[in-house]
Amino acid sequence: MQRIYSLTRSAYMSAADAQKGAMEAQSLRDEIARMKGQTTGATATALAEFDKKIASAFDPGTAGRAAAVMNTLQSADVQPTALQARTIETALTNVRAALARWNTLKTTELTALNARLKAAGLPALRRSM
After folding, report:
1. CB 73 within 8 A of CB 7
2. CA within 20 to 30 Å of 119's CA: 2, 9, 11, 104, which one?
3. Structure pTM?
4. What pLDDT, in 10s, does the model give residues 96-120?
5. Domain ranges in the chain?
């Protein structure tokens, strides 16, 4: 039962983190959409490329799959089968990878984009949502 608890907790935390990240990403994409009309040339291209990177950072179902895994685990009072354990680990690995991509985007790449926006006389995009 300890294994079920551990996997359920990991799935829950991963789903919550993925949901938070997805909301932050959408907020930043909304901000980019509002700014697009103010940019031209290389700055507009940089915004569009960054927006595409944000869109690809999260598969739309990432948080949902982690939550589904958690629900599957909680619905049974038996140890997960080997196949279920592999499926759960794969889902958790995918969430971790999406969060790593998002963290890189919102730190390193957002900082570089904000420097470019500032040089163009535009306001920086918000780091914290």
Report:
1. yes
2. 104
3. 0.81
4. 998 999 999 998 999 999 999 999 9
5. 2-119
